[in-house]
Amino acid sequence: MGLQACLLGLFALILSGKCSYSPEPDQQRTLPSGWVSLGRADPEEELSLTFALRQQNLERLSELVQVVSDPSSPQYGKYLTLDHVADLVRPSPLTLHTVQKWLLAAGVRNCRSVITQDFLTCWLSIRQAELLLPGAEFHHYMGGPAETHVVRSPHPYQLPQALAPHVDFVGGLHRFPPTSSLRQRPEPQVAGTIGIHLGVTPNVIRKRYNLTAQDVGSGTSNNSQACAQFLEQYFRDSDLAEFMRLFGGNFAHQASVARVVGQQGRGRAGIEASLDVQYLMSAGANISTWVYSSPGRHEGQEPFLQWLMLLSNESTLPHVHTVSYGDDEDSLSSAYIQRVNTELMKAATRGLTLLFASGDSGAGCWSVSGRHQFRPSFPASSPYVTTVGGTSFQNPFRITNEIVDYISGGGFSNVFPRPSYQEEAVAKFLNSSPHLPPSSYFNASGRAYPDVAALSDGYWVVSNSHLVSRTQLLRDASTPVFGGLLSLINEHRILSGRPPLGFLNPRLYQQHGAGLFDVTHGCHESCLNEEVEGQGFCSGPGWDPVTGWGTPNFPALLKSLLNP
């Protein structure tokens, strides 16, 4: 009888909106550029919402990341299984019981969980959702190059106060899917140069980073790699096959993706999706490759959140994941950022190497109380991922030394403190750089990124049966290239009986970037004002927040990461 009274009380809170709280009061709800409202959604229309349930033992989770990722630890490489992670972080019985009863009391019965039981995705009508989440008001929106349709609420939602210890946030209300990161660059002006190359191809990558024809996967190990795409665009198998026919003649390779997770779609191929797949599979040549593809229209409310949930629901996953998704830190709620960071920790304890692009806005810029500041990107700023910056050839027509790609993202987090593994490197940069911006522009005590870099512009790609030249394709491609090279190193480790690399940063910083070409010339862009005049941070000897420790010299990187 007491339980029934409690449930009735919860349901009464749903209807009255009293004694409630806002889990995400700081979530940005302004309509992103390129999106338009199509009006209120039909009350009987169905949508999906994702409830992030409060996890347990997060301090222990953080400790385990350190011990399995630190080469000096006896536990190095002894990664957790998904079942072990689930046993550690699974919400308490009280949390599971309370949330389930709250949903049942509101008539929400079509829900699906994950192995770790810390996410719950439910399908319900708009009418039910607006009763369940007072303040929410769902509208249809359309935007992006694919004219994606989503349902979102422009107003904040509330939850009963009784759920405060049990729910981190509800996904599918405010955050919009990312849009294309393609960005126009000016043509290089190098008069009178006879070029050795006219754009970046797999052979240029292999020559610059010192890979031989023998630096490919064996095709016999259980090694695998993956890229994740959150734009509503797709790659085409025929484009991949043609790309390998054109550029893969000098090394063993696979001409098809081993597995697509999600819906692949039948529309035109997207340049970005094509680039990610083609350069992951040509850098990490002859290694089994998965592609995580964003769902079709109306299905995926938050594709990045869905990808995180997939990681919590698959016991066997590729060892290396490359991801180009990113948002401004300040556009996301604290609850969302902290929970995503926990999901990245979970991946690290399982020995997954997660590589994220550093962004393509340089140091970024926004105005806070009338003053300009740099604008960090997330998840690039997470302490539990390896973030990849971008470079260009010093001479755009020759395979030369690399300099900073001026749009490559980098900087200091305003959310996460500097992790211990990078304390020495960042302190040295801050104390020695002759070109530091004013201290009011960045949080010098924050997690600094990127960690590494690779070539990021001028790539050739096959898309929709056409060879797209570098004059058309201008986008950061460094992440899949670096990811592919780490997959080759994993191949050597697995064949010699060692565990895969896992979370790379503690080892990377302990070894002071061994095996990487140091990039020491160039600055990236930032605020266009008189104080900084468009200049962000500049590269220099050692680690810097533009190119990290530098770009790969494969034979040396393999040697530095092969043992133990």
Automatic annotation (TrEMBL):
Name of the encoding gene: TPP1
Organism name: Callithrix jacchus
UniProt signal peptide: 1-21
Substrates-to-products reaction catalysed: Release of an N-terminal tripeptide from a polypeptide, but also has endopeptidase activity
Protein name: Tripeptidyl-peptidase 1
Gene Ontology, cellular component aspect: lysosome; melanosome
Top-level taxon of the source organism: Eukaryota
Role description: Lysosomal serine protease with tripeptidyl-peptidase I activity. May act as a non-specific lysosomal peptidase which generates tripeptides from the breakdown products produced by lysosomal proteinases. Requires substrates with an unsubstituted N-terminus.
Subunit structure: Monomer. Interacts with CLN5. Interacts with CLN3.
EC number of the protein: 3.4.14.9
Classification via CDD domains: Peptidases_S53, Pro-peptidase_S53
